[in-house]
Amino acid sequence: MTRIDEYRSDLGRLDRAAWPGYLDRHSDLPGTRGNIELAMAFAELADLALDDELIASGDEYRTFCGVLGLGATAADPDVQARLRELAVDERWRIRESVAMALQHFGDLNLPALEMLVLDWATDPHPLVQRAAAAGICEPRLLVGPAAAAVAIEVCRRTTAALAARPAETRRDIDVRTLREGLGYCWSVAIAADSAQGLPAFWALDDSDPDIAWIVRENLTKTRLTRLL
After folding, report:
1. Cα dist. 129→4, 23, 135, 209 in Å?
2. DSSP the chain
3. pLDDT digit string (tens) for 93-125?
4. Do 93 and 64 meet the contact criterion of CB atoms below 8 Å apart?
């Protein structure tokens, strides 16, 4: 039995009114790593009303769990709009939970996720772009050439958007966060289909210092170096 299975079992034995307290006790916060396995178990079992309750609480771990739970209902345009808003949250854990929620949505409806991330990749906000790339660049989702092509295109669009930003904005923290995400997302997309991914990757304009950094970072990733 995995930790997720154990937490799923524990939550199943509790009244739902007791779930928030259980999350508090087992959050592993404060600390360097929140309890992701518990959040994933919660997301499988929760409903939208409980997700809303936890997000409204303002508590970081409760919000993390509630946002992750939104992935199950992300086919709803209203939920997608909420996730887009949460993608620019100032708390990094909440931004990570948005990416994880997108991945959970992809587990349930990959074609719908593909349309969503292609749309988000053209959003003007760098953190929404980052959520699109992080959401689709998950190995378990990239199970065939079509899914890999979407991931590569999202990386291409968001990298082009970064390159188009004026030099004076490049040090903005949100832009740097996008750059950091692209520093690994390309390698995930390429590993899923190198025949499509490598030509797009080598076509990047590394005369731009931020694009050169993205190229160098991906070239340190084992999943990519084993293909070269």
Report:
1. 29, 30, 10, 19
2. --HHHHHHHHHHHS-GGGHHHHHHHTS--SSSS--HHHHHHHHHH--HHHHHHHHHH--HHHHHHHHHHGGGGTTSHHHHHHHHHHTT-SSHHHHHHHHHHHHHHHHH-HHHHHHHHHHHTT-SSHHHHHHHHHHH--GGG--SHHHHHHHHHHHHHHHHHHHTS-GGGTTSHHHHHHHHHHHHHHHHHHHH-HHHHHHHHHTS-TTSHHHHHHHHHHHT-HHHHTT-
3. 999 999 999 999 999 999 999 999 999 999 999
4. yes
Contact 23, 40 (CB under 8 A): no
Least confident of 29-33, 114-118, 153-157, 177-181: 29-33
Let me know the angle formed at the C-alpha of 48 by 46 and 54, rounded to the nearest 5 degrees: 75
Q: What pLDDT, in 10s, does the model give residues 43-58?
A: 999 999 999 999 999 9
- Dihedral angle over CA of 180, 182, 188, 189, nearest 10: 170
Distance, CA of 166 to CA of 110 (rounded, Å): 34
Instruction: Kindly state the tokens that stand for 99.
Output: 């990416």
Q: Which residues, 6 or more positions from 94, have their beta carbon under 8 angstroms from its beta carbon? A: 60, 63, 64, 67, 86
Of 170, 172, 181, 173, nearest in space to 218 by CA: 181
Report which of 178, 176, 190, 63 is spatially closest to residue 121, judged by C-alpha positions. Answer: 178
